[in-house]
Design a protein that fits this description.
By secondary structure, the chain is α+β, with helices and mostly antiparallel strands. It has five helices and 17 strands. The relative contact order is 0.27.
Length: 261
Amino acid sequence: MRVTPLKPLGATVDGVTVDELPRRRVRELQCLLAEHGVLVMRGQHVDDEAFTRFLRSFGDLVFTKGETPVDGHPDLNLVTNVGRTTPPRSSFHVDTSYVRKPPAYTALRAVEVPERGGRTLFSNQYRAHDTLSDELWRDLVGRCIEHVVTGVELDAGDERSARHPVFRDHPITGRTSLYLTTPDRCASVSGLGERQARAVIHYLFEHSTRPDNVLAHKWAPGDVVMWDNRCVMHRADHSGVVGRRTMHRGMVAEAALPRGQ
């Protein structure tokens, strides 16, 4: 396995086949995900069966209610611009953060790559934390953000909101990340009034997603990209897309620590 770091986050990984993996290789990839945030695996011309086996190597799969499943693969989510008259909308976010235990990992498999555009953007939330001013950092220590659901229909009794620490220590690296999601899904900040909370959330979001803190992944046929939701936000860039863009997405529940960690 050969790992090539990217900037300001992420790494390309060669020598991995997207399919069921031995536990030793899963542990290696978990540690790489925790360190780099995003792993890009090129040339993975695999089907949904192999993609699902790969994801299950990391743990139980999670599906967000209200999303569109892949035909014949109910654990996978269809992400596509096909059949749409207007481009999809996307803002930087963390997947399903409105539950107490959000998914640890998300992965996308490129099914159809557009002729132009359609990149996926990732923010380095370790670096976002590390570059906060000392004054703001001290004010936010110990505070939580209430994450709420938007845009999907849920059943009665389903989780709709959860409080998460603004600063989250990664269980593998021990590094601290700035943990938030798109501002529309950040309802409040503990200990702050509504107006101050909105200002703080807006500042943290802009701080996290400034251009020098973002990796823009240009998709190629056969790409599989996996990321760690505990230290990364992401969004799809739907501006200027020419051609069909179809991805199959899978998410993995919070996983046990690799042995030896």
